[in-house]
Specification:
The protein is elongated, with a radius of gyration of 26 Å. The longest helix is centred in the N-terminal third of the chain and has 16 residues. 41% of the residues are buried. Strands 1-2-6-5-4-3-7-8-9 form a nine-stranded mixed beta sheet, sandwiched between helices. The chain has 16 helices and twelve strands.
Protein backbone atom coordinates (compact mmCIF):
# COMPACT_ATOMS: atom_id res chain seq x y z
CA UNK A 1 0.00 0.00 0.00
CA UNK A 2 1.16 3.53 -0.73
CA UNK A 3 0.99 6.54 1.55
CA UNK A 4 -2.34 7.30 -0.12
CA UNK A 5 -3.90 4.46 1.87
CA UNK A 6 -3.01 6.22 5.13
CA UNK A 7 -4.36 9.47 3.72
CA UNK A 8 -7.73 7.94 2.83
CA UNK A 9 -7.87 5.90 6.04
CA UNK A 10 -7.60 9.08 8.12
CA UNK A 11 -10.21 10.83 5.99
CA UNK A 12 -12.59 7.86 6.16
CA UNK A 13 -12.27 7.52 9.93
CA UNK A 14 -12.99 11.25 10.29
CA UNK A 15 -16.44 10.84 8.72
CA UNK A 16 -19.16 11.51 11.27
CA UNK A 17 -20.95 8.13 10.98
CA UNK A 18 -17.90 5.92 10.51
CA UNK A 19 -16.63 4.29 13.69
CA UNK A 20 -14.09 1.52 13.94
CA UNK A 21 -16.53 -1.31 13.25
CA UNK A 22 -18.03 0.39 10.19
CA UNK A 23 -14.53 1.25 9.01
CA UNK A 24 -13.58 -2.43 9.13
CA UNK A 25 -16.69 -3.38 7.15
CA UNK A 26 -15.89 -0.81 4.50
CA UNK A 27 -12.27 -1.85 3.95
CA UNK A 28 -13.21 -5.55 4.01
CA UNK A 29 -15.89 -4.99 1.38
CA UNK A 30 -13.98 -2.68 -0.94
CA UNK A 31 -10.43 -3.91 -0.29
CA UNK A 32 -8.87 -0.66 0.91
CA UNK A 33 -9.67 2.67 2.52
CA UNK A 34 -9.05 4.42 -0.78
CA UNK A 35 -11.53 2.19 -2.63
CA UNK A 36 -14.06 2.59 0.20
CA UNK A 37 -13.73 6.38 -0.04
CA UNK A 38 -14.28 6.33 -3.79
CA UNK A 39 -17.08 3.73 -3.99
CA UNK A 40 -19.01 3.45 -0.72
CA UNK A 41 -21.30 6.42 -1.44
CA UNK A 42 -22.71 4.74 -4.53
CA UNK A 43 -22.28 1.08 -3.62
CA UNK A 44 -23.34 1.10 0.03
CA UNK A 45 -26.00 -1.57 -0.61
CA UNK A 46 -23.16 -4.10 -0.69
CA UNK A 47 -22.62 -3.39 3.00
CA UNK A 48 -24.69 -5.35 5.50
CA UNK A 49 -26.11 -3.12 8.22
CA UNK A 50 -24.92 0.13 6.64
CA UNK A 51 -27.37 2.48 5.01
CA UNK A 52 -27.21 5.67 2.98
CA UNK A 53 -27.14 7.88 6.08
CA UNK A 54 -23.99 6.13 7.36
CA UNK A 55 -22.04 6.76 4.16
CA UNK A 56 -23.44 10.24 3.52
CA UNK A 57 -20.35 12.00 4.89
CA UNK A 58 -17.91 9.98 2.81
CA UNK A 59 -16.46 12.16 0.05
CA UNK A 60 -16.52 15.34 2.13
CA UNK A 61 -13.50 17.36 0.96
CA UNK A 62 -12.93 18.82 4.42
CA UNK A 63 -11.97 15.35 5.62
CA UNK A 64 -9.33 15.13 2.91
CA UNK A 65 -7.92 18.46 4.05
CA UNK A 66 -7.93 17.18 7.63
CA UNK A 67 -6.09 14.01 6.54
CA UNK A 68 -3.42 16.02 4.74
CA UNK A 69 -2.81 18.15 7.84
CA UNK A 70 -2.67 15.04 9.99
CA UNK A 71 -0.12 13.37 7.75
CA UNK A 72 2.05 16.49 7.80
CA UNK A 73 1.85 16.70 11.59
CA UNK A 74 2.82 13.05 11.98
CA UNK A 75 5.75 13.39 9.60
CA UNK A 76 7.10 16.47 11.39
CA UNK A 77 6.75 14.88 14.84
CA UNK A 78 8.05 11.40 14.05
CA UNK A 79 4.67 9.77 14.65
CA UNK A 80 4.01 6.41 13.00
CA UNK A 81 0.54 5.66 11.63
CA UNK A 82 -0.58 2.06 12.08
CA UNK A 83 -3.59 0.63 10.23
CA UNK A 84 -5.51 -2.40 11.48
CA UNK A 85 -6.45 -3.65 8.03
CA UNK A 86 -2.79 -3.70 7.06
CA UNK A 87 -2.05 -5.74 10.21
CA UNK A 88 0.27 -3.06 11.53
CA UNK A 89 -1.03 -2.90 15.09
CA UNK A 90 -0.08 -5.31 17.92
CA UNK A 91 -1.36 -8.79 17.12
CA UNK A 92 -3.48 -9.36 20.25
CA UNK A 93 -5.16 -6.00 19.86
CA UNK A 94 -5.87 -6.86 16.24
CA UNK A 95 -8.07 -9.76 17.40
CA UNK A 96 -10.63 -7.49 19.09
CA UNK A 97 -13.77 -6.75 17.09
CA UNK A 98 -13.74 -3.07 18.06
CA UNK A 99 -10.03 -2.57 17.55
CA UNK A 100 -9.09 0.99 16.55
CA UNK A 101 -8.90 1.30 12.79
CA UNK A 102 -5.91 3.62 13.21
CA UNK A 103 -3.22 3.83 15.89
CA UNK A 104 -0.77 6.71 16.16
CA UNK A 105 2.52 5.66 17.70
CA UNK A 106 5.71 7.23 18.99
CA UNK A 107 8.54 4.90 19.89
CA UNK A 108 8.77 1.15 19.57
CA UNK A 109 6.62 -1.84 20.51
CA UNK A 110 8.13 -5.31 20.32
CA UNK A 111 5.10 -7.35 19.29
CA UNK A 112 6.69 -10.72 20.05
CA UNK A 113 7.53 -9.78 23.63
CA UNK A 114 4.94 -10.71 26.32
CA UNK A 115 2.79 -7.83 27.55
CA UNK A 116 1.09 -7.18 30.88
CA UNK A 117 -1.41 -4.39 31.45
CA UNK A 118 -1.30 -2.93 34.96
CA UNK A 119 -3.87 -0.31 35.94
CA UNK A 120 -5.40 1.29 38.99
CA UNK A 121 -6.54 4.38 40.81
CA UNK A 122 -5.00 7.83 40.66
CA UNK A 123 -5.29 7.87 44.47
CA UNK A 124 -2.77 5.10 45.02
CA UNK A 125 -1.99 4.11 48.61
CA UNK A 126 1.25 2.82 50.12
CA UNK A 127 -0.27 -0.67 49.84
CA UNK A 128 -0.64 -0.41 46.07
CA UNK A 129 2.75 1.22 45.63
CA UNK A 130 4.45 -1.54 47.61
CA UNK A 131 2.75 -4.22 45.53
CA UNK A 132 3.93 -2.65 42.26
CA UNK A 133 7.50 -2.29 43.54
CA UNK A 134 7.61 -5.91 44.69
CA UNK A 135 6.07 -7.19 41.46
CA UNK A 136 8.71 -5.52 39.33
CA UNK A 137 11.48 -6.61 41.66
CA UNK A 138 10.24 -10.21 41.52
CA UNK A 139 10.12 -10.18 37.70
CA UNK A 140 13.48 -8.43 37.29
CA UNK A 141 14.96 -11.28 35.23
CA UNK A 142 11.86 -11.78 33.04
CA UNK A 143 11.33 -10.08 29.70
CA UNK A 144 7.99 -8.40 29.15
CA UNK A 145 6.48 -5.04 28.24
CA UNK A 146 4.22 -3.24 30.69
CA UNK A 147 1.12 -1.38 29.50
CA UNK A 148 -0.65 1.41 31.36
CA UNK A 149 -2.40 4.73 30.82
CA UNK A 150 0.08 7.45 31.91
CA UNK A 151 -2.35 8.75 34.54
CA UNK A 152 -1.19 9.79 37.99
CA UNK A 153 -1.10 7.20 40.75
CA UNK A 154 -0.86 3.54 39.75
CA UNK A 155 -0.21 4.20 36.04
CA UNK A 156 2.67 6.55 36.79
CA UNK A 157 4.19 4.08 39.24
CA UNK A 158 3.96 1.27 36.68
CA UNK A 159 5.79 3.29 34.02
CA UNK A 160 8.43 4.47 36.50
CA UNK A 161 9.08 1.00 37.90
CA UNK A 162 9.36 -0.35 34.35
CA UNK A 163 12.01 2.21 33.53
CA UNK A 164 13.79 1.58 36.84
CA UNK A 165 13.94 -2.15 36.09
CA UNK A 166 14.89 -1.60 32.44
CA UNK A 167 11.69 -2.95 30.97
CA UNK A 168 9.98 -1.33 27.98
CA UNK A 169 6.67 0.28 28.83
CA UNK A 170 3.81 1.50 26.64
CA UNK A 171 1.58 4.40 27.64
CA UNK A 172 -1.87 4.47 26.02
CA UNK A 173 -3.08 8.06 25.71
CA UNK A 174 -6.64 9.38 25.81
CA UNK A 175 -5.90 12.27 23.44
CA UNK A 176 -3.91 13.25 20.39
CA UNK A 177 -0.21 14.03 20.24
CA UNK A 178 -0.69 17.79 20.32
CA UNK A 179 -1.45 17.34 24.03
CA UNK A 180 0.05 15.53 27.00
CA UNK A 181 -2.26 14.81 29.91
CA UNK A 182 -1.56 15.13 32.72
CA UNK A 183 1.10 17.75 32.10
CA UNK A 184 2.95 16.55 35.22
CA UNK A 185 3.88 13.39 33.33
CA UNK A 186 5.52 15.11 30.37
CA UNK A 187 9.04 14.27 31.53
CA UNK A 188 7.94 10.71 32.22
CA UNK A 189 6.56 10.39 28.68
CA UNK A 190 9.90 11.55 27.29
CA UNK A 191 11.73 9.05 29.48
CA UNK A 192 9.48 6.24 28.26
CA UNK A 193 10.58 6.96 24.69
CA UNK A 194 14.24 7.37 25.64
CA UNK A 195 14.22 3.96 27.33
CA UNK A 196 12.81 2.10 24.33
CA UNK A 197 9.10 2.25 25.12
CA UNK A 198 6.22 3.82 23.25
CA UNK A 199 3.26 6.19 23.42
CA UNK A 200 0.19 5.18 21.46
CA UNK A 201 -3.26 6.63 20.86
CA UNK A 202 -6.22 6.07 18.58
CA UNK A 203 -7.00 9.79 18.57
CA UNK A 204 -5.87 12.17 15.85
CA UNK A 205 -3.38 14.86 16.85
CA UNK A 206 -5.86 17.66 17.63
CA UNK A 207 -8.16 15.54 19.83
CA UNK A 208 -8.27 16.94 23.37
CA UNK A 209 -8.32 14.77 26.54
CA UNK A 210 -12.10 14.82 26.88
CA UNK A 211 -13.74 12.79 29.64
CA UNK A 212 -15.29 10.16 27.37
CA UNK A 213 -11.94 9.40 25.76
CA UNK A 214 -10.58 7.73 28.88
CA UNK A 215 -13.07 4.86 28.90
CA UNK A 216 -12.52 4.43 25.17
CA UNK A 217 -8.77 4.36 25.79
CA UNK A 218 -9.15 1.59 28.36
CA UNK A 219 -10.23 -0.97 25.76
CA UNK A 220 -6.80 -0.64 24.12
CA UNK A 221 -5.08 -1.17 27.47
CA UNK A 222 -7.17 -4.32 27.95
CA UNK A 223 -6.95 -5.63 24.41
CA UNK A 224 -3.23 -5.29 23.82
CA UNK A 225 -2.25 -7.76 26.58
CA UNK A 226 -3.25 -11.32 27.47
CA UNK A 227 -3.62 -10.29 31.11
CA UNK A 228 -4.63 -7.21 33.09
CA UNK A 229 -3.72 -6.57 36.73
CA UNK A 230 -5.93 -4.16 38.68
CA UNK A 231 -3.91 -2.86 41.62
CA UNK A 232 -6.31 -0.53 43.41
CA UNK A 233 -9.59 1.02 42.33
CA UNK A 234 -12.78 2.28 43.93
CA UNK A 235 -16.39 1.51 43.04
CA UNK A 236 -16.95 2.50 39.43
CA UNK A 237 -13.32 3.50 38.90
CA UNK A 238 -11.91 3.65 35.39
CA UNK A 239 -9.93 0.47 36.01
CA UNK A 240 -13.19 -1.42 36.48
CA UNK A 241 -14.01 -0.60 32.84
CA UNK A 242 -10.57 -1.87 31.80
CA UNK A 243 -11.31 -5.13 33.59
CA UNK A 244 -14.71 -5.32 31.88
CA UNK A 245 -13.10 -4.89 28.45
CA UNK A 246 -10.51 -7.53 29.31
CA UNK A 247 -13.27 -9.97 30.28
CA UNK A 248 -15.10 -9.25 27.02
CA UNK A 249 -11.91 -9.98 25.09
CA UNK A 250 -11.44 -13.25 27.01
CA UNK A 251 -8.28 -11.98 28.69
CA UNK A 252 -7.10 -12.91 32.18
CA UNK A 253 -7.86 -10.39 34.91
CA UNK A 254 -6.20 -10.27 38.33
CA UNK A 255 -7.10 -7.93 41.18
CA UNK A 256 -5.27 -7.04 44.37
CA UNK A 257 -7.71 -7.57 47.27
CA UNK A 258 -7.80 -5.18 50.20
CA UNK A 259 -9.74 -4.25 53.30
CA UNK A 260 -13.46 -3.84 52.70
CA UNK A 261 -13.25 -0.51 54.54
CA UNK A 262 -10.61 0.90 52.16
CA UNK A 263 -12.27 2.85 49.35
CA UNK A 264 -9.29 2.26 47.06
CA UNK A 265 -9.76 -1.52 47.33
CA UNK A 266 -13.54 -1.73 47.00
CA UNK A 267 -13.50 -1.94 43.21
CA UNK A 268 -10.95 -4.77 43.29
CA UNK A 269 -12.93 -6.63 45.93
CA UNK A 270 -16.09 -6.33 43.86
CA UNK A 271 -14.34 -7.67 40.75
CA UNK A 272 -13.21 -10.68 42.76
CA UNK A 273 -16.62 -11.15 44.42
CA UNK A 274 -18.41 -11.17 41.04
CA UNK A 275 -15.85 -13.56 39.52
CA UNK A 276 -14.62 -10.86 37.14
CA UNK A 277 -11.05 -11.17 38.42
CA UNK A 278 -8.80 -13.69 40.13
CA UNK A 279 -7.66 -12.61 43.57
CA UNK A 280 -3.93 -12.10 43.94
CA UNK A 281 -2.85 -14.11 46.97
CA UNK A 282 0.93 -14.10 46.53
CA UNK A 283 3.23 -12.56 43.97
CA UNK A 284 4.78 -15.96 43.35
CA UNK A 285 1.39 -17.42 42.39
CA UNK A 286 0.62 -14.38 40.23
CA UNK A 287 3.88 -14.78 38.34
CA UNK A 288 3.13 -18.45 37.70
CA UNK A 289 -0.40 -17.67 36.49
CA UNK A 290 0.97 -15.01 34.16
CA UNK A 291 3.37 -17.55 32.70
CA UNK A 292 6.41 -15.47 33.51
CA UNK A 293 9.53 -17.55 34.02
CA UNK A 294 12.20 -17.46 36.69
CA UNK A 295 10.49 -15.65 39.56
CA UNK A 296 12.67 -14.77 42.52
CA UNK A 297 12.50 -17.29 45.32
CA UNK A 298 11.46 -14.79 47.94
CA UNK A 299 7.93 -14.40 46.62
CA UNK A 300 6.28 -16.61 49.25
CA UNK A 301 4.28 -13.70 50.63
CA UNK A 302 2.35 -10.85 49.08
CA UNK A 303 4.90 -8.30 50.30
CA UNK A 304 7.97 -10.47 50.86
CA UNK A 305 10.86 -9.32 53.00
CA UNK A 306 11.79 -12.51 54.82
CA UNK A 307 10.66 -16.10 54.65
CA UNK A 308 8.18 -17.01 57.38
CA UNK A 309 6.94 -20.46 58.28
CA UNK A 310 3.42 -20.87 59.64
CA UNK A 311 3.25 -21.93 63.28
CA UNK A 312 1.10 -25.06 63.57
CA UNK A 313 -1.22 -25.69 66.47
CA UNK A 314 -0.81 -28.91 68.45
CA UNK A 315 -3.57 -30.69 66.55
CA UNK A 316 -2.33 -29.36 63.19
CA UNK A 317 1.17 -30.57 63.97
CA UNK A 318 -0.07 -33.98 65.14
CA UNK A 319 -2.03 -34.55 61.95
CA UNK A 320 0.72 -33.16 59.72
CA UNK A 321 3.38 -35.40 61.28
CA UNK A 322 1.12 -38.42 60.96
CA UNK A 323 0.45 -37.77 57.28
CA UNK A 324 4.14 -37.15 56.71
CA UNK A 325 4.99 -40.51 58.30
CA UNK A 326 2.34 -42.40 56.34
CA UNK A 327 2.04 -40.93 52.80
CA UNK A 328 -1.39 -41.30 51.17
CA UNK A 329 -2.94 -42.40 54.41
CA UNK A 330 -6.73 -42.49 54.27
CA UNK A 331 -9.00 -40.61 56.65
CA UNK A 332 -10.20 -43.68 58.60
CA UNK A 333 -6.67 -44.97 59.17
CA UNK A 334 -5.54 -41.52 60.24
CA UNK A 335 -8.42 -41.32 62.69
CA UNK A 336 -7.39 -44.62 64.24
CA UNK A 337 -3.71 -43.69 64.53
CA UNK A 338 -4.21 -40.36 66.29
CA UNK A 339 -7.40 -41.28 68.12
CA UNK A 340 -9.47 -38.35 66.85
CA UNK A 341 -12.89 -38.63 65.20
CA UNK A 342 -13.00 -37.92 61.47
CA UNK A 343 -15.34 -34.92 61.85
CA UNK A 344 -12.65 -33.18 63.92
CA UNK A 345 -9.81 -34.15 61.57
CA UNK A 346 -11.36 -32.83 58.31
CA UNK A 347 -11.47 -29.13 59.29
CA UNK A 348 -7.84 -29.31 60.43
CA UNK A 349 -6.79 -30.94 57.16
CA UNK A 350 -8.52 -28.10 55.30
CA UNK A 351 -6.49 -25.62 57.35
CA UNK A 352 -3.29 -27.52 56.49
CA UNK A 353 -4.26 -27.49 52.80
CA UNK A 354 -4.75 -23.71 52.89
CA UNK A 355 -1.33 -23.40 54.56
CA UNK A 356 0.17 -25.43 51.73
CA UNK A 357 1.24 -28.25 54.05
CA UNK A 358 -1.06 -31.06 52.90
CA UNK A 359 -2.61 -32.20 49.63
CA UNK A 360 -5.73 -34.37 49.41
CA UNK A 361 -6.61 -37.01 46.80
CA UNK A 362 -9.74 -38.95 45.87
CA UNK A 363 -10.78 -41.54 48.40
CA UNK A 364 -9.94 -39.14 51.25
CA UNK A 365 -6.20 -39.84 51.05
CA UNK A 366 -3.57 -37.27 51.99
CA UNK A 367 0.12 -36.53 51.57
CA UNK A 368 2.37 -33.98 53.25
CA UNK A 369 3.95 -31.36 50.97
Amino acid sequence: MTSEEYFYAIALRECSQIGDIHFHKLVCTFGSAQEAWNRAGKEYKKLEGIGQRTVSDIGNKSHLEFAEEELNFCEKNNIQIRLKHLKEIPSLLNECNDTPAILYQKGNIEDAQPKISIVGTRNMTAYGKQFIENFFEATQSTKYTSISGLALGVDKEVHEQSICHQKPTVAVLAHGFQYLYPAKNRKLSEKILQEGGALITEFSSSRKPDRENFIQRNRIVAGISPATIVVETGFGGGSVSTAAFANDYNRDVFALPGKITDSSSQGCNQLIFHNKATAISTIKDLIELLGLNDPKEKMEELFPYRETKPQLSDNQNLIYQSIQSYPQICLDDLSMRIDLPTHKILPIILELELLGKVKSFSGRQFIAI
